[in-house]
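Budget justification aside, the reviewers requested a transparent look at the raw inputs and outputs of the sequence design task funded under Objective 1. We therefore reproduce one unedited record. The lines immediately below are the structure tokens for a 155-residue chain.
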């Protein structure tokens, strides 16, 4: 864990709200001058606190309204099976997120697609071809209640 001071936290919160904010706006919000702002951002990037910058796209507006959460259990839990699973999953574009989980299932996948027909094709042409999957359970998102990328950073 990286030690963050109050200025780092203010800066990170501002960048989470608007990663395109110009330096002057950041200076005004955080109350420090340009050079320290620039240095702090570079430090946070170099330390991996800021992993990158991206545009957040509305999946519905680009024709990908179906969000599916799929729980997956593996046949075996040895290093080879887990490594193979992770490598194959990483190469599938429709899978937006993959988490190793505790409990009944081993992994949770977030999959974004056009519709149920596309999900059916995805399951049988891609997901079932991933080595080592024993069982899957899918849940389909009916409506989105909360979706944020803003972390509640505290000291």
């Amino acid at each position: 864990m990286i030690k963050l001071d109050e200025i780092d936290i203010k800066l990170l919160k501002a960048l989470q709200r608007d990663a395109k904010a110009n330096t002057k706006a950041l200076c005004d919000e955080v109350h420090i001058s340009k050079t320290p702002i620039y240095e702090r951002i570079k430090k946070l990037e170099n330390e991996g606190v800021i992993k990158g910058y991206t545009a957040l796209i509305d999946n519905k507006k680009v024709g990908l309204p179906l969000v599916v959460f799929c729980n997956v259990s593996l046949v075996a839990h040895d290093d080879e099976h887990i490594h193979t699973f992770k490598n194959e999953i990483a190469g599938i574009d429709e899978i937006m997120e993959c988490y190793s989980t505790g409990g009944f299932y081993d992994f949770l996948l977030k999959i974004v697609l056009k519709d149920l027909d596309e999900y059916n094709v995805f399951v049988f042409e891609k997901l079932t071809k991933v080595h080592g999957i024993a069982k899957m359970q899918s849940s389909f998102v009916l409506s989105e209640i909360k979706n944020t990328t803003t972390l509640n950073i505290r000291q």
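The first strand starts at residue 66 and ends at 74. The helical segments are 6-17, 23-30, 34-46, 79-90, 116-125. Computational costs for records of this kind are itemized in the attached budget.
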